[in-house]
Design goal:
The protein folds into two domains: 223 residues, Alpha-Beta Barrel (TIM Barrel), CATH 3.20.20; 98 residues, no CATH class. It has 14 helices and nine strands. The protein is globular. The model has no long low-confidence stretch (mean pLDDT 95). It binds iron/sulfur cluster and FE2/S2 (inorganic) cluster. FE2/S2 (inorganic) cluster binds next to helix 13. This is PqqA peptide cyclase. Pathway: Cofactor biosynthesis; pyrroloquinoline quinone biosynthesis.
Length: 368
């Protein structure tokens, strides 16, 4: 292996784009793939074998909703036989009796369950699915009953930001080990719905205080991870831990990508597993190498003391807001375009489309 490129540690496998929910903040691309574009069981197995050979230690099985794949047990079994840690990222709806147990039997290590609201009306509104909340709670209880570790993922935006204290209570009452208070990232469907989802600054500040207080009060009881809202930040996050640094993802059709929104960068082409080997993609794909390390950086990142901490932030956010994937992420206070974030917040907060009546729900084949 090229000594400048270390093996990847984790992989996000988007097994399918099919999902019973239609969440307005979904990070999937706007052009969702139908079932006939998904890799077969054998192709996913071959991909997972090669991922293990390449050094991948953890696989996050995601979607869409991964449990719609009837072969999920076979895929989990393939990974656990290779000693790879498996995390099921699920919406928790439509999982038949006995399925979680079957997944546990083949070695599933962990379940991450998304909950869209701390109460039923919010969950049902955001995912556009009646009865969703109660079904999710049932799934959460089953996960804990059978002894699998549970993380609750709460994607936060203007329609549920005041529910953060209730999310904390809910996670505690369900016996979760971890709660992610994850402010939504404005890519994919969330970017399309940005005006309807953007919180205001006062709510964000209140939320930070609530989370910090709970983190210290609940030490040793409930781990609370906080994903800060980029638009309100001073410095950006190291998106994906740095472009093609130790993680990548695979779309349902086998296309390998450095991150969720990479396909929004028009200058890049992404290879598919089957046409290229995973090892070749990881080492030699021009798209994976485009923003690796810090050689590609322009000023102010190039001479910044934080360049190996946040890796210049998010390339896809730079593309979406600055129109240049190689620009400094405008979330950074040092970006010449940083003030654009404040403008976008106030535009969103005063837009006529802030209400949920204007949601554009995620749907396969939706004409935008
Ligand atoms: Fe990070 Fe670049 Fe901002 Fe420095 S200038 S903090 S490297 S985004
Ligand atoms: Fe693509 Fe952040 S989502 S680099």
């Amino acid at each position: 292996m090229n000594e400048r490129i270390l093996p990847p540690i984790s992989m996000l496998a988007e097994l399918t784009h099919r999902c019973p929910l239609q969440c307005v903040y979904c990070s999937n691309p706007l052009e969702l793939l139908k079932a006939d574009r998904e890799l077969s069981t054998d192709a996913w197995r071959a991909l997972f074998e090669e991922a293990a050979d390449l050094g991948v230690l953890q696989v996050h099985l995601s979607g869409g909703e991964p449990t719609v794949r009837p072969d999920l047990e076979k895929l989990v079994g393939c990974l656990t036989r290779r000693g790879v840690y498996t995390n099921l990222i699920t919406a928790g709806i439509g999982i038949p009796e006995g399925r979680l147990e079957a997944l546990q039997d083949v070695g599933l290590d962990h379940v991450q369950l998304s909950i869209q609201g701390a109460n039923a009306p919010t969950t049902e509104k955001i995912g556009n699915h009646r009865g969703a909340h109660e079904k999710k709670l049932q799934t959460a209880r089953r996960v804990v009953e059978i002894g699998l570790p549970l993380t609750i993922n709460a994607p936060i935006h203007r329609h549920n930001i005041e529910e953060v204290p209730a999310f904390i209570d809910l996670a505690l009452s369900l016996g979760a080990e971890r709660l992610e208070i994850a402010n939504v990232q404005y890519g994919g469907w969330a970017l399309l719905n940005r005006n309807a989802l953007m919180p205001d600054r006062a709510s964000v500040e209140r939320q930070v205080e609530i989370v910090e207080e709970a983190q210290s009060r609940l030490q040793g009881v409930l781990a609370i991870d906080f994903v800060a809202p980029d638009y309100f930040a001073v410095y950006p996050k190291p998106c994906m831990g740095g472009w093609a640094r130790d993680a990548f993802m695979v779309a349902p059709d086998g296309t390998a990508l450095p991150c969720h929104a990479a396909a929004t960068i028009p200058s890049l082409h992404f290879e598919r597993f089957g046409e290229w080997s995973l090892t070749d993609i990881w080492l030699n794909s021009p798209a994976f190498n485009a923003f690796r390390g810090d050689d590609w950086m322009l000023e102010p990142c190039r001479s910044c003391e934080r360049r190996d901490i946040d890796w210049g932030g998010c390339r896809c956010q730079a593309m979406a807001i600055a129109g240049d994937a190689a620009a400094t992420d405008p979330a950074c206070v040092k970006s010449p375009l940083h003030s654009r974030m404040a403008t976008l917040i106030s535009q969103a907060n005063s837009a006529p489309s802030t209400s949920s009546d204007n949601f554009r729900y995620r749907r396969i084949g939706r004409t935008l």
